[in-house]
# Entry
Amino acid sequence: MIHAIAFYLFATLVVASAALVILARNPVHSVLWLILAFFNAAGLMVLVGAEFIAMLLVIVYVGAVAVLFLFVVMMLDIDFAELRAGFIRNFPLGMLIALVLLAELVLGIGAYKAGVIHLGTPDGMAAPLVGRSNIESIGALLYSKYLFLFESAGLILLVAMIGAIVLTHRERKDTRTQNISKQVSRRPDEATVNTKPEVGKGVQL
Amino acid sequence: MDLAASLSLVAPEVLLSASGLVLLLVAAWAGDKSARAISYIGVALLAVCAFLAAPALCGGAMGADTVAFGGQLRVDAFAVFAKLLIYAASGMTLLVAPAYFERAGAMRAEFPVLILFATVGMGIMVSATDLLALYIGLELNSLAAYVLAAFLRNDGRSAEAGLKYFVLGALASGILLFGMSLTYGFTGTTHFDGIRAALTGEMSMGALFGLIFVLAGLAFKISAVPFHMWTPDVYEGAPTPVTAFFASAPKVAALALAMRVALDAFGTQAAAWQQIVIFAALASIIVGALGAIGQINIKRLLAYSSINNVGFLLIGLATGTQQGASAMLVYLVIYVAMTVGGFVAVLMLKDADGTPVEGIPEIAGLSRTRPLIALCLAAVMFSLAGIPPLFGFWGKFVVFQAAVDAGMIPLAAIGIAASVIGAFYYLKVVKVMYFDEPADVVKGTSDWAHWALLVVSALFISPLGYLLTKWMGELADKAAAALFFAA
# Structure
């Protein structure tokens, strides 16, 4: 029973907040709805017993969304004073979402304690290792069966990094950068000269 | 199968990845002045990989010995055939690129490294027998391709090409992934063998949707109509060596992948995809032929020509027979040779300042100012049009032969009729070069690598190419047999 309630709650909220991501006129609101969508998707993962993926969703996606949020704030012209002005007006909505999240936490944990939902019976290599946690099972698969593809995925990330550097990095000739070895290899007697100029005469540099 | 055996099967990919990483370090420390040297090392590496892979093709490798990593990859004669073509096309790009980018002052040492990684991705694509391997290979190749398209970052057109390719490519990847998730959901496996076994008999609506989305995603990658919109813009904007690369290697890889997906994974549901492929084939031939007529930029013209050629190749796939697959492979070899010849000739067209010349009016009277380039370009155009003494005719002939043998006579008839439309714009280029008053724009000299590649590809597509038909046909038959043995 608690499973069904928790599932429908999470599922409805994922769909609703995903719809609001594209319907919200304000990009900042879109980003916030996106976080809610990810959070609820993580809840669904918890329900089927995939705690590790749930944690990944929260850490990676919600973390990445925070970065995205920064980009939105930097790139778009958003009047934050106006946003904050709506705080009191939107306070009830905010409280409502907070309450829903709290309820979700309670329900989710309750459902998780009551045992996971079984989605058919996985077979062969796909079956979880008995007595091992999610992370151990995933690691055992990634580093044995899917080793080649895992390493290739690493190569994809490397290509993405090379691409970003190639397309944006420029060597600027006009900036003065710090040359540490030059600084360190300077000797005091080359750097400063002790002179005692006579009164009325100039200094030879 | 143990890990060592699997690794020895993917030795070319491992070698290319490892040396790509080393060359990346060299590029980082030695800087852009090492770019030419790295490019030539890359060509040498590709040649080594070709020698590593070739024995499997000559021996017609198939069956359980070719399966690597528990069925994720299958390095059979078919995969090796495609790989050899891909290595040749990538090596060609590495040979012609330094001269072009040095003139533009934009040669970066990362260029050859990106090409090598893209080649690794394509190697995975053509041997993939699992949806995961398919996707990872495709993304590795595409991601490098997006960067390569925008490589001349100070040129607005190149940046536009990169952005367009990236946005539309990401959309296509999304479509493909959606299709793959549906397929996985309705068959319960990502292995091609498993999908094939699960899809016998009546096909459910969900699996059909999965099939359509997967094919749509692949159609984007091979720029088949109706997913061809990006092609002219990207081909025009990307630096010419990169365009030559796009038109050859990734196309071979994506077509080989489409063949494997259609004939192996969805092989029991041929009726479901055949009508889609027939539509895409005919639409590509017709749109490619009609779209090219109004073009005045030769790179755009060659882009439409590549759409047109994909149409002919898809006729081979539409037959769904072993003969059709073999014909496609023969056509692919000839297509790569024609593409290389065409784009290298375009690369050699530049004015007195060394700025590339791309307009068709500007090459008027080329036969009088640069007779050898004009002759080679004319040979490429005649060959693309499929006019008999040249080798391009043979490719079209085997494909139509396969279609007729499979009882698809209307399809072959429409294809032949549409290839006549195509002949119009190919011959227009020849007419401009040979019979118009010289515009006298094309000046300057070219690198030895350009001349060498131009002459080699022109000789290949000349009537001399017919000496190779028997040998090429045998290899293609072995490759097709391996593809169908698996299926």
Observations:
- Chain A touches chain B through 19 residues (CB under 8 Å).
